[in-house]
Each structure stands twice: as structure tokens, then as C-alpha cells.
Amino acid sequence: MSRRKSQGRSVSGILLLDKPLHMSSNKALQIVKRLFNAAKAGHTGSLDPLATGMLPICLGEATKVSQYLLEADKVYQVSFKLGERTATGDAEGEVIETKPCDAVTQQQIESVIDSFLGESEQIPPMYSALKHNGQRLYELARKGLEVERKSRRIHISEIELLSFQQQQVELKVACSKGTYIRTLAEDVAAALNTLSYVTQLRRLDVGSFSGFPMVTMAQLEELAEQGELQLDKELLAVDAGIMTMPELRLNDDLSYYLRLGQAVRVPKAPANGLVRLYDEKRFLGIGEINDDGLVAPKRLMNTQC
């Protein structure tokens, strides 16, 4: 009986892709996986096909930290048109309602957006990937159905008006995970007594990758022609996405027992929470401080990073 041939190579790291317009996040992921000939890959939170910008893609062992990038704060730049509402909340849908907006001023917008700072409740849009009784909401929406959605607690730490001209509003928004920018645009318009839909959306930052350069799909394809070595130079280290966690260094004895699955006592460890773990040579993974003050393994790596 023959063994199943391994599909792809064992390559680990994080790629900061500048997702192109009109491409789904899953399609972008599959292209990157193919270009790198990677055995394992995953992205860290979808961007709509009409959105561009930072899409961290985790290869190999880096998929073990992807959930922490999913939970990270995000920064967006969004443009939306006042006075009209579409079925999808963006430029992809048909205009289904109009409302006058000629009286809206820049001063009013600046005053209104300040009211969205901090924590608030937001109802997810029907055109989203959330599930209702096993079906994606956007699948129901395409059938003309609308179901009740539970509100979600979100946090907006920064919201800045970048421009306002010809009924087009452009904002920069720093927010928590789970924030729907299309819904935010509609809520801002509602506070201005009008309607809106998103015309452009770009994700600028994800978590600790603030200000990091991104690589385009076209650049990746050019590098792929030069070979895997050139492609791999674009990868960040496996631990690059969790640098906000405290760091702990373990000696050989402690790292040995930790890799056996045992909790260990580490001098000067934090009182609680998650930590990045290293021995003298490499990143070991993520640990968690338990109630006894011991460092327990939570997500260990099989990597030489």
C-alpha cells in the first residue's frame, strides 16, 4: 500500500498581502498557497471582494497564531456616498433608496463621527458571512430574505474625517475585531439624517503590523518566476503577529519539560495572560499563566524560527 504523497512544501511564516480589488480573500489565499507551493496556509479575517489592503496570510506553523490575528484591532480607510442606500451596503448592489443630503456640512460630519468613539452596539449587515441556522447571511440576503441579527459589542478607538466633497465622505477608522465598516457608514449617515453606501474600502493595518509594508499579487507572481528562495524573503517570522504579548525566555531544562506538555515555573513571569515563549535559539510557541503562576503550553510550534 503506497503512502499518500505530501502536497506542498513545509514553509512557515506570515505574508502581508495587499489584497487586490474584486478578489475574494479565499481566492487570494489559494493563489498565495500555490505560488509558495505551501502544504498549509490560512488567512486571518476576510476582506470583501470590493475591499483592498492588508490580508495577513499564515503559512505552515504560522497558522497556529492566526486566531490571535483574527482577534486583533484593525485600521481602515473608507469612502462612502451620502444620499443613497444599496441592497448590499456597497457599490456592488443596486440603489434601493434615496434621501436628500445637500444640507450636510463638514462640521456636522465631524461632530457626528465623534459620537461613535468608544464602545457601542452594532447590528451586523445581512450581506455578511455570519451564519443563521447553518446558512451564511449573504446567502439568505441574495434570496431576498432578512432575519433578525443580534447586536455585537464593538470598540472604535479612532475615527478621523479625511475629506468631504460632492457628497463623498472619507474616514480613517481604528476599530476592534468584528466591526462592519459598511454598517458604520450607514449609521453615520443615519445620524446625519440621510443614507449612504461604501464606494471604497481599504484595510491599512492589522494588529501589531501597523505601518508594515505589504506585497502585491503582481509582485508575488514576479518573485515566483525567480524561485521559492526569493518568495520566502517576503515572509515575516512566525511570531511577528503576536509581538504585543509579553516575552519569556526559558533555559534548556524548562523548555524541555514545557515541550513535553508540562507547566513550568519561570522567574519574573507575568501574573496572568498569554506569553511568547523562547529558548536560547528559537520561538517555542504561546504559553498561558495558570492560577498557580505556572507557565503552561497553549500552542507550541514545530519550527526552527
Report on this structure.
A hairpin with a 7-residue loop joins strand 2 (41-43) and strand 3 (51-59). The strands form four sheets. Strands 1, 2, 3, 4, 7, 10, 11, 12 and 13 form a nine-stranded mixed beta sheet that branches. The chain has a four-stranded mixed beta sheet with strand order 14-15-16-17, with helices on one face. The chain has a two-stranded antiparallel sheet with strand order 5-6. It is built from eight helices and 17 strands. The chain has helices spanning 25-36, 66-70, 106-114, 137-142, 181-191, 217-226, 228-232, 252-259, and strands at 13-19, 41-43, 51-59, 74-82, 84-86, 95-98, 118-122, 131-132, 135-136, 152-165, 168-175, 196-206, 215-216, 247-249, 273-278, 283-289, 295-300. With 305 residues, it is of the alpha+beta class. It folds into three domains: 13-71 and 209-240, Pseudouridine synthase; 74-206, Pseudouridine synthase, CATH 3.30.2350.10; 245-300, Archaeosine Trna-guanine Transglycosylase, Chain: A, domain 4 (Roll).
